[in-house]
Specification:
4 strands; mainly alpha; four-stranded mixed beta sheet
Length: 507
């Protein structure tokens, strides 16, 4: 009888794991069909500028991006890898190859870091393969439309930080702090992700003071060391990150924006199906903590909820990919629940969340895309950067480039959101391939006092090249009268595609 029960249990596990694998393959295939969103195209547009700069690593350092040097280096790696393997440039092939390689590397890293957590899973009788497959499934649900955002990479880096910090290997404990400067190098605000491992170690290993001390010593040591190295070797990068916070109005907390967190969180469910599981786990974890009347547990759940919420609020942008930080909330909540409730109940909660997430994904993605029955949220269409949207931009810039031989130009003044420098691989006259230092003065007049603003404005006023590309929808030139007057006096419109204008110097 026992053998028969074991047999059916094994078959059941194979069925569940097989189902998850099928879902993963479907999501992975779908992710390859979706083009990189406009945000990532703008970032790659900045990386393309390295072709016109010096050799590595100076070309990466001197190129401009809204994110940090760590993130720039990652994009640079994929760009150079494609150029090394393929002789012909093809945008579609580049994106598919890049996304495939990107996910493959992240999945391998996830496996490596999760292996480090095996003792924890074994302690609570968790199936490691199941944990790994569910982690990949949830990651794909969150990222198949938002691929290659800094927040996604930060989730994996944070997982590595947690794995190292709780390892039985003291050398790995002492290296756990190395992940803090890596998080900062991706995007200044992603350093907040380090709060998750810190809170988790204090909670789960309160009796193991050596792990806590090693983690704290490592974190402080690597943070201070990285600060010194950044000031000595990368002062310009720190200046860029400081300017980026001005453009995005980051690190400014307002209580009045809290309702927007909830509003866009619900709104983004159609874009980020995986949010269902974090929200469900938070509710269940808080319920369990309140029921136990354990102040320490209640505080733990509240902190792991406040941290991602604070991260999103201080950025004031409400982009769907900002909510990916809630993946870490899911992970931490599962850890907590596994230590206080039965495995059976927890499995039911996780299964319910996964099924709900997959159902929402099917309704909001598969049906609209292939059956044309439902219509997707316009907000999501923009972040999805769907095929039609992509091809329209590609066509616009391709026609411009071919008709006026823009690739042969020594430089072009790009006054666009960054897509132009992606589709037209010509040197940007400004270091900023999408000049936020000029465009953002409309929402933040204080930028006019910055060095970056005056540098970009003076260079633009001295520009005498043959062509200017302007995205009128993105850049309201009327807010900078001197630049607007110069362009009107010296340039004339020769091509217009919706809000995209190509201007040629009036000779």
């Amino acid at each position: 009888m026992a053998a028969l029960k074991a047999f059916f249990s094994k078959q059941n596990n194979l069925l569940i794991n097989g189902t998850i694998i099928i879902l993963i393959l479907c999501l992975f295939y779908n992710s390859l069909l979706v083009h990189l969103n406009g945000n990532i195209l703008a970032c790659f547009g900045g990386i393309f500028q390295t072709d016109f700069l010096s050799s590595f690593p100076d070309d990466v350092y001197n190129s401009w991006n809204l994110r940090g040097i760590g993130y720039k280096t990652i994009l640079y790696f994929f760009y150079k890898l494609y150029n090394f393997l393929f002789t012909e440039w093809d945008y579609t092939l580049f994106e598919k190859f890049t996304k495939f390689t990107y996910y493959a590397i992240l999945f391998l890293l996830s496996y490596f870091f999760l292996v480090g957590l095996k003792p924890f899973f074994k302690k609570y009788n968790f199936n490691f393969i199941r944990v790994f497959l569910c982690a990949i499934l949830l990651f794909l649900l969150a990222t198949h439309r938002q691929s290659m955002e800094a927040e996604e990479i930060a989730v994996i880096i944070t997982l590595g930080m947690f794995s190292f910090s709780i390892s039985d290997n003291k050398n790995l404990n002492m290296l756990s702090g190395l992940f803090i400067p890596i998080l900062f190098s991706l995007k200044a605000v992603t350093i907040a992700f380090a709060g998750f491992p810190f809170i988790a170690v204090l909670f789960f290993f309160k009796d193991d003071r050596t792990k806590i001390y090693r983690f704290l010593i490592s974190g402080v040591t690597f943070t201070l060391l990285s600060i010194a190295l950044w000031f000595i070797f990368l002062p310009g990068e720190l200046a860029d990150l400081k300017e980026a916070t001005n453009y995005q109005s980051s690190f400014k907390f307002k209580v009045t924006t809290i309702p927007l967190l909830v509003f866009f969180g619900v709104k983004n469910l159609s874009c980020l199906s995986n949010l269902i599981l974090p929200y469900l786990l938070i509710v269940v974890a808080l319920f369990v903590a309140l029921k136990s009347r354990n102040v320490r547990s209640i505080s733990f759940i509240i902190l792991t909820t406040i941290l991602p919420s604070f991260y999103i609020i201080i950025q004031h942008r409400w982009f769907p990919y900002h909510y990916i930080i809630f993946l870490l909330t899911s992970f931490i909540s599962i850890f907590y629940l596994s230590s206080v409730i039965s495995k059976t109940i927890l499995n039911r909660v996780i299964t319910t969340g996964v099924i709900a997430a997959c159902l929402v994904y099917f309704i909001t993605n598969i049906v609209p895309a292939y059956k044309k029955i439902l219509f997707m949220d316009p907000y999501c269409n923009n972040c999805n950067y769907n095929k039609t949207y992509y091809e329209e931009y590609n066509q616009k810039f391709s026609l411009m480039s071919e008709k006026y031989d823009l690739l042969s130009q020594p430089h072009i003044l790009f006054l666009t959101s960054g897509k132009a420098s992606y589709f037209i691989k010509t040197k940007s006259y400004l270091r900023q391939t999408y000049p936020l230092s000029l465009q953002r003065v409309d929402v933040n007049p204080a930028i006019k006092k910055t060095k970056a603003y005056h540098t970009a404005l003076n260079r633009s006023l001295n520009y005498s090249g043959d062509y200017i590309i302007i995205d009128r929808e993105w850049f309201n030139l009327e807010i900078i009268h001197t630049l607007d007057d110069k362009i009107k006096a010296e340039y004339e419109l020769v091509e217009k595609y919706d809000e995209i204008e190509l201007l040629v110097r009036n000779k």
